[in-house]
Amino acid sequence: MAQLFTHLQRIPLLPCKVQEARKFMRLFSISAQKACQVRVRFAPSPTGHLHLGGLRTALYNFLFAKSKNGKFILRIEDTDQTRLVVHAAQRLEDMLKWAKIYPDESPTVGGPRGPYVQSQRINLYHNYMKNLLENDSAYKCFCSKLRLDWLRNDAIRRNETPKYDNKCRYLSQVKIEELERKGTPYCIRFKLETITDPYQDLIYGPILINVAEHEGDPVMMKADGYPTYHFANVVDDHLMGITHVLRGVEWQISTPKHLLLYKAFGWNPPLFGHLPLIVNRDGSKLSKRQDDLHIEHYRDQGYSPEAVLNFVTDIGGGFEGKEHNVLLTIEELSEKFNLARLTKNSCRLDFDKLKLYNQMDLQRCLKSPTELPVLLDQLQDLVKKTFEEK
Ligand code: GLU
Q1: In the chain, what are the domain boundaries?
Q2: Residue 360's Cα: distance from chain center in Å?
Q3: What is the E.C. number (predicted)?
Q4: 386: CA distance to ligand 1 center in Å?
Q5: Residue whose CA lies nearest to ligand 1 atom number 10
Q6: C-beta neighbour count of 199 within 10 angstroms
Q7: Facing residues of 138 across strands?
Q8: Does the annotation count 288 as an active-site position?
């Protein structure tokens, strides 16, 4: 059984890779539908509240999975231990539940490809790191903080973008052994290759970013033994059988690097689509620190999950035959979801719409014999809480 599981982990479930799917089906005699099953994930870092951008990513992944009879996975990416916020992971999962975005696999639900918290998968990353060192796609970097700071300041002084100069890529074996004998701390870097071909973004079309031109070799494993985001993210997407990665456009710049990692491992990559930026109504950038962008804030203000979800989908597009100002349930949203209808235009927030959808949802509840009593209970609680002292 253990052997079967390791094997399962190694085979990516790509719907479009017919050969892979056939191989998979032959090996385990499972149905075509299962072999081609869509598996998507929401992979937040537990560094604070769930904000609108995060909710949009989770929701679109969920709707896509449901529209394809696939699975939606929640994975907590907590490898940057310096940025952790206590209870943030649990709060994120609670808020998804509040919004009726139920993961099929997650830290609390569990599932066959867990654990779903990266800090519980550290040994696994070390094993995969060995593969990259062995096939010469990665190397140990012994540069001190002092040297790296000097490199950075020197670049800034010359008005250039700071980047690592890949010095340790060229260390001799004798030198490496000497540094190791002395116990010099090291991190592990990935050798960036030149990219000449674009990749096909599901939303933005062909994207060509030659990372090696702008960046030095990136760190994959820090000196403290923790993997960086890029490494853990790619290893986990592969092991968890992720078929499509839908994430915010701010991650688009990382994708070529991730594709290089897939190539170095000899793995089939998932398909990538990046969701356009969410901006204020006037087109200005949102700030993560804005309190009114937290989902908890909307819940506490009395907005219903349906109102928030319709508000979020209204700005983003991606639906077939969805009229504006018509409130849909999450099931109706998933029926109408169509990835091909997503555009690259930035999404402008219009908070008047949120109020409008909330009013519409209230009216819907007032007419529903099952929801009316729930609403009345909530109202009673609210009155009690508000007038307690009086
Ligand atoms: N941990 C990343 C985040 O905080 C995940 C990005 C991705 O989806 O690859 O958003």
Answers
A1: 1-36, 291-386
A2: 32
A3: 6.1.1.17, 6.1.1.24
A4: 39
A5: 44
A6: 17
A7: 190
A8: yes
In angstroms, rounded to a whole number, what is the distance separating the alpha carbons of residues 25 and 19?
A: 10
Q: What is the pLDDT of residues 210-259, one digit of tens each?
A: 999 999 999 999 999 999 999 999 999 999 999 999 999 999 999 999 99
Helix (H), strand (E), coil (C) string for the chain: CHHHHHHHHHCCCCCCCHHHHHHHHHHHCCCHHHHCCCEEEECCCCCCCCEHHHHHHHHHHHHHHHHCCCEEEECECCCCHHHCCCCHHHHHHHHHHHCCCCCCEECCCECCCCCCEHHHCHHHHHHHHHHHHHCCCEEEECCCHHHHHHHHHHHHHCCCCCCCCCHHHHCCHHHHHHHHHCCCCCEEEECCCCCCCCEEECCCEEECCCHHHHCCCCEEECCCCCECHHHHHHHHHHHCCCCEEEEEHHHHHHHHHHHHHHHHHCCCCCEEEEECCEECCCCCECCCCCHHHEHHHHHHCCCCHHHHHHHHHHHHEEECCCCCCCCCCHHHHHHHEEEEEECCCCEECCHHHHHHHHHHHHHHHHHCCCHHHHHHHHHHHHHHHHHCCC
Q: Which two tokens stand for residue 287?
A: 């700030």
* Ligand 1 contact, 233 CB (< 6 A): yes
Task: Tell which atom from ligand 1 comes closest to the C-alpha of 245.
Answer: 8
d(C-alpha 214, C-alpha 193), whole Å: 12
- Please provide the distance, in angstroms rounded to a whole number, between the alpha carbons at the two ends of the chain: 64
Contact predicate 276/344, CB 8 Å: yes
Q: Among 229, 262, 288, name the best residue to mutate to test ligand 1's pocket (greatest count of ligand atoms within 8 A of Cβ).
A: 229
Atom of ligand 1 nearest to the CA of 57: 8
d(CA 282, CA 294): 20
Determine the residue type at 213. Answer: E
Residue type, 283: G
Catalytic residue among 34, 130, 175, 288: 288
Query: Residue 59 in contact with residue 99, Cβ under 8 Å?
Result: yes
pLDDT at 15 over 50: no
pLDDT tens-place string over residues 125-135: 999 999 999 99
CA distance 295 to 287: 14
Please say whether the structural domain 291-386 has been given the CATH code 1.10.357.10.
Answer: no
pLDDT band at 290 (very low <50, low <70, confident <90, very high): low
